[in-house]
Specification:
Elements: E1 2-3, H1 9-18, E2 26-27, H2 48-54, E3 59-60, H3 68-77, E4 81-85, H4 93-96, E5 102-107, H5 119-125, E6 130-137, E7 147-154, H6 161-184, H7 218-227, E8 234-239, E9 246-258, E10 271-276, E11 283-287, E12 293-302, E13 308-309, H8 310-316, E14 324-326
Parallel strand pairs: 1-4, 2-3, 4-5
Antiparallel strand pairs: 5-6, 6-7, 8-9, 8-14, 9-12, 10-11, 11-12, 12-13
């Protein structure tokens, strides 16, 4: 097994349960200080290395599995099959030639859609109604190998990258075991080629990607807020007359009302008003965005403070004329 973080842990545990004497080793990323704190989707739950040690499975944590020492560790284990899930390293041809039967990957998308490091976030961001898991044969190309199996699940209206990834991790664990059992029979394992014309990319999301663009439509920003959780989170800066800009994380938001106000429309990011959402006890801040549907922000987190409801936030930062969300330096 090669994997890191909460997406990989269910697959590793499922393989250990299905093949109690068959898992010869684990390759996982070295522990790095602050991984849990930054909320990355590579965050640890039980910890891959902890799971392995509890099962008396050898653990390797090289900085690079492709380096001579990492490759040597892998070759010493003499694996028949490598099962990869969110390992976080591109595997060289030498690594891919080490297992006797080949390498398979648990990929969190319906390939060929969303090849790359962040398929779950992009499925939410783009407003897809479903996503899924694809088990592929690993080749030197990025997520381009033949597909052994694929299953879809719906994306819920309130799914974040974290909640959706957890669902996909459970699905991927079952599918990985099914695929490994096919290899265990010793016969050929067939796959289906991906349609190159349908390929889309899901490149790695960096911390700065979380800055909210208030000129976008409200529906996009609402999805963006969910797609950026648990990392890097969607953030903005609160501008108040006579005050320094303050960094704020937006944790929850929903679509507001259609507002037609002609040429005197407030600038995107302007905090218009606050009040209870109809038929609820939830207070929301009404924010203008890049179309005539407002965004209702219901949960925020000022820099250095805990998450709080919009009602709590407004006690410390009441709405004043000219109050606006935007980049640190407004245009």
């Amino acid at each position: 097994m090669m994997g890191t973080g909460t997406f990989a842990e269910p697959t590793f545990e499922a393989l250990l349960a299905a093949f109690p004497d068959g898992v010869v080793g684990l390759f996982t990323q070295p522990e790095r200080e602050g991984v849990k704190q930054r909320g990355s989707t590579r965050q640890t739950g039980k910890g891959m290395a902890n799971i392995a040690r509890a099962a008396n499975v050898p653990v390797a944590q090289p900085e690079s599995v492709n380096a001579p020492d990492g490759l040597a560790q892998l070759q010493e284990m003499r694996p028949d099959l490598l099962v990869v899930a969110a390992y976080g390293q591109i595997l060289s041809k030498d690594v891919l030639s080490a297992p006797a039967r080949g390498t398979i990957n648990v990929h969190a998308s319906l390939l060929p859609k969303y090849r790359g490091a962040s398929p779950v976030a992009y499925s939410i961001l783009n407003g897809d109604s479903e996503t899924g898991v694809t088990i592929i044969k690993v080749t030197p190309g990025l997520d381009s190998g033949d597909m052994i199996s694929q299953e879809a699940i719906p994306i819920a209206a309130d799914d974040t990258t974290g909640t959706l990834e957890a669902k996909l991790a459970a699905l991927g664990a079952r599918m990985a075991v099914d695929a490994a059992r096919k290899y265990a029979t010793g016969g050929p394992v067939e796959g289906t080629k991906q349609d190159a014309a349908l390929v889309t990319k899901a490149p790695k999301i960096k911390k700065e990607f979380g800055l909210i663009d208030w000129t976008k439509p409200a529906a996009y920003i609402e999805r963006f807020v969910r797609a950026m959780q648990p990392w890097p989170t969607a953030y903005t800066f609160l501008h108040r007359p006579g005050k320094e800009p303050m960094r704020v994380i937006v944790n929850k938001a929903q679509l507001g009302a259609l507002c037609l106000c002609g040429p005197n429309r407030p600038a995107p990011g302007t905090v218009d008003s606050a009040g209870k959402i109809p038929d609820t006890d939830v207070t929301a801040m009404c924010v203008w965005v890049g179309e005539n549907v407002t965004l209702l922000v219901t949960e925020l987190q000022p820099a250095g403070k805990k998450k709080m409801s919009a009602e709590e936030f407004l006690r410390g930062y009441p709405i004043v004329e000219g109050m606006r969300f935007g980049p640190e330096v407004l245009a």
